[in-house]
Amino acid sequence: MPASPSHDTRFDLLIRGARLLDPSQSLDRVADIGVTDGRIAAIGDLSAANADETIDASGTIASPGWIDLHAHVFSDGNINGLDADAKAGIATGVTTVVDAGSAGADSWQTFRQSVIEPSRTRVLAFLNISVDHRAKPLHGDWANFSQSKTIRLAEKEAAAGYCLGIKVLASQTHCGALGIMPVKLARQAARLSGTGLMVHIGNAPPVIDEVLDLLEEGDIVTHCWHGKYGGILGRDKKPLPALLAAAERGVKFDIGHGSASFAFETARHALDAGLPLHAISTDLHKGCVNGPVYSQGRTMAKFLHLGLSLPEIVRLSTHSPAQLIGWDDRIGSLAVGREADITLFRVVEGDFEFTDSEGAKERATRDLEVVATVRTGRVINAT
Ligand SMILES: [Zn+2]
């Protein structure tokens, strides 16, 4: 049990009576949270007398602020990103948005100045391996790569605390005639900048076995359970040997739902096979925010529907993605001393229709409803 704070502990904010659900410390009980200077100062039975602001959160669940490991919050060329605060972040329960490659080296400064710095939502990002997003296909031309620019920028922006690594889209739509080469360039750029790698998988070419074979421990595969031909399952609906080998090497797997990249059917086969999953994320952009994805909360609810437990979907949206990006000492936990990123939500019962990216519709009985978000010690009500 955490030690009781001394009687003179002062809180900027006191959240009273919520069910605290924090898988990072196996916490699941009703208690109060005291916040001071934007950090979690105490957890327990706390006095409102010493708080500047108190909110009654009884009947709600308080989890570490949700982390959406794959979203788009910048618009450039082919990418139609969403407003980081109003559509993808704090208004929807997400305190940290990871932008998955909406900016390449040529547009990064604009992205940083117009989105990363001014947003109240914490915005971290993977830098696209292609420098210019107006190109179509994005990775289809040698002229759209500059290893020197990309590696230098990734290294500098990682040191600044914004860049997590390199993003590449390993699909025919984006690689065009260059096939596997953009994936090789991205792997090299990640290695030489000392940063991470996120790889989108989709339609071949490049063939998935070849993509997976290039990946190393800690690399993230996004759209892992898409429903297109040539995904992680063979004709027998069993995981490919290359997938099992990648998982064995420590490659990580992220949902990245999006308009084209998540299928209930693939998910059920993957869960039946016991495949590892490390993050539930949305791939939100303008083309899927009004369906089928909607939000991080709805995407999490789809995994409740598929049979995962509430603590597990919270873990896959907090502590686990924080570990993947190396931020687990700062976010993804309600431990005392951490940044006060908190999501207050409810599980609501009803009759809901959930749709995947293949257009499959299923009836579900539970959805998540975000009540409020706390970020930098301030309460933001959900819209
Ligand atoms: Zn995406």
Protein model, in words:
- The chain has 383 residues and is of the alpha/beta class.
- It has 2 domains: 11-63 and 336-357 and 366-381, Urease, subunit C, domain 1; 65-324, Metal-dependent hydrolases (TIM Barrel), CATH 3.20.20.
- The chain has helices at 84-88, 108-116, 147-159, 172-175, 181-193, 208-213, 241-249, 264-272, 296-305, 310-315, 319-324, and strands at residues 11-22, 27-36, 39-44, 51-56, 61-64, 66-71, 94-100, 122-128, 163-170, 196-201, 220-222, 252-254, 342-355, 361-375, 378-381.
- The strands form 2 sheets. Strands 1, 2, 3, 4, 5, 13, 14 and 15 form an 8-stranded mixed β-sheet that branches. Strands 6-7-8-9-10-11-12 form a 7-stranded parallel β-sheet.
- Helix 3 packs across helix 5 (181-193).
- It is globular and about 65 Å long.
- The structure holds zinc ion.
- The site of zinc ion has 5 residues, from loops.
Would you kindly provide a brief summary of this structure?
By secondary structure, the chain is of the alpha/beta class.
Q: What class, by secondary structure content? A: alpha/beta
Name given to the CATH architecture of the largest domain: Alpha-Beta Barrel
Please summarize the sheet with the most strands.
8 strands, mixed
Oligomer: single chain
What CATH calls the topology of the largest domain is: TIM Barrel
Give the percentage of residues in beta strands: 25-35%
Order of helices and strands: EEEEEEHEHEHEHHEHEHEHHHHEEE
Question: What gyration radius follows from the Cα positions, in whole Å?
Answer: 21 Å
Continuous helix count? 11
- Domains, number: 2
CA-based shape: globular
Total strands: the figure is 15
